[in-house]
């Protein structure tokens, strides 16, 4: 489920997405794209992220961890 | 508004004219308002006439002063929900003045001052306030006061360029801050009944512009204040420049 949210925003295919993927690995994941990703995650899961959480979400692993901590079940 | 729902606003250049009109109108609508202005005397007069206003003196082209002032306002208010970037300077000067052989070209000093007062101040203040809104996840509103002269007025190179810059910033910030829920819009007034208008234009020029306006009259400052409140209230407005000009630009 997370892959289908992330891939169109970062303009990569779902199979390119792994937990190890981080901002430094792909050029398209810059600070502006990051805000689009945050807005989509907040809208999709009906959550609100703090600025600290937004700042920490720089890898797929970190995104999963923070979403889980907010009670989001990714299946 | 209930106490828990009171919104906090900053109006720059709020000690007189259009800025004071916007500030007092927001107070009347239940907002707690801080005004920032460089004019000490005008700040004292504004506070005397409107004790509900919180007044702060700062040169908004100086980032250190802006940073300090915004921190003081955050300390006093807790949160900032609304920023109205109104501070500015109207300046008329031809690019080439054929009647003045000793100073034929537009003064670079004047150009720099007008760009700085209108554009730098907006950029610096918004950067600091938007940072606060982003960190606190406040879905705030930024209202920039532009001008119809952003389209380019003969004899107002610097002012026109500055206001065109304001329009561009409005669009850029709406796109950039939108994902955080922060909205940004602008108001481009035509000619209004303010002291700044009367200082910047001769009676002959004002009369000319009145005739160019479909409604054949100057606007009233409260009409701009009403538009500020309209932008704040409508949560689906962002990125737009509202021309409030009595039909001048038709």
Description:
The complex is a heterodimer of chains A (75) and B (250). Chain A contains 4 helices and no strands. Chain A is mainly α. The longest helix of chain A is centred in the middle third of the chain and has 15 residues, at 31-45. The termini of chain A are close together. Chain B has helices at 17-28, 40-49, 63-77, 108-136, 157-177, 195-200, 203-212, 221-233, and strands at residues 8-12, 32-37, 54-57, 82-85, 141-145, 183-189, 241-244. Chain B is of the alpha/beta class. In chain B, helix 1 packs across helix 8 (221-233), helix 3 packs parallel to helix 4 and helix 4 (108-136) runs parallel beside helix 5. The chains are: A mainly alpha (75), B alpha/beta (250). Chain A binds chain B through residues 32, 35-36, 38-39, 48-51, and chain B through 134-137, 176, 178-180.
Compact description:
The complex is a heterodimer of chains A (75) and B (250). Chain A is an all-alpha fold and 75 residues long.
Q: How do the strands and helices of this protein lay out in sequence?
A:
The complex is a heterodimer of chains A (75) and B (250).
Chain A: H1 2-10, H2 31-45, H3 51-56, H4 60-69
Helix pairs in contact in A: 1-2
Chain B: E1 8-12, H1 17-28, E2 32-37, H2 40-49, E3 54-57, H3 63-77, E4 82-85, H4 108-136, E5 141-145, H5 157-177, E6 183-189, H6 195-200, H7 203-212, H8 221-233, E7 241-244
Parallel strand pairs in B: 1-2, 1-4, 2-3, 4-5, 5-6, 6-7
Helix pairs in contact in B: 1-8, 3-4, 4-5
